[in-house]
Amino acid sequence: MTPGGHLPFFLPKFFSRALGFWNWKCALLSAAARSLVYLAAMARSGPNARVAVVLVEMGYVLFTAGLYAGLQQKALGIRSRLLGNLTVALAVPMLAQLLDWLTHRAIGAAAPAKATLTVSIFAVISACFHLHVMRHGVFLTGSRGHSLLKDFQRIPRLTAGFVLLPLAWLSAIAGRLARGIESQAAV
Q1: Per-residue pLDDT tens for 126-159?
Q2: What are the backbone dihedrals phi and psi of residue 146, each rounded to the nearest 5 degrees, phi first?
Q3: Quick one: which of 66, 88, 67 has its CA closest to 134?
Q4: CA distances, 19 to each of 76, 81, 112 (Å)
Q5: Which residues does 130 contact at the CB level (< 8 Å), separation at least 6?
Q6: Quick one: DSSP state of residue 159?
Q7: What's the pTM value of the predicted model, to 2 decimals?
């Protein structure tokens, strides 16, 4: 805030640009999923603590998850695919978790360390899943997006592909090792 109590001149432009690529699909899904993760992680906490944390999570995440997913969608267009992938899978989730933690602390509804760790792990896995599905054209908004129904129709196949991805990577590594051993044996 400026001394007169007004927002600096650049903030309205910043917020309007940020909301210009807000991803409503990911906002809705993330708020629902993350709230369930918090509820599960805080199962033994008192009901008032759970309700406060979940309400903060729902309100905060509806806004920020859409913003973060918009940043992730924008990062898909970074010229360096590796830099885009790192932005989607690590930079944006790390920023999101830091701001999430600060928000919970600021309003006095700080989540226990166990819940924060659980949600952080979920955030990285979720970001990797977002990367996977967004690279396949799902959960995108704007001119690159499809209907949410069409996205949901593609999710089972993409989820299976995501779950099987580590096996595909291991298979590719084993194949390279086998070719390397064969080429050395031929020499």
Answers
A1: 899 989 999 999 999 888 889 999 999 999 999 9
A2: -120, 180
A3: 88
A4: 18, 25, 31
A5: 26, 69, 72, 88, 139
A6: H
A7: 0.68
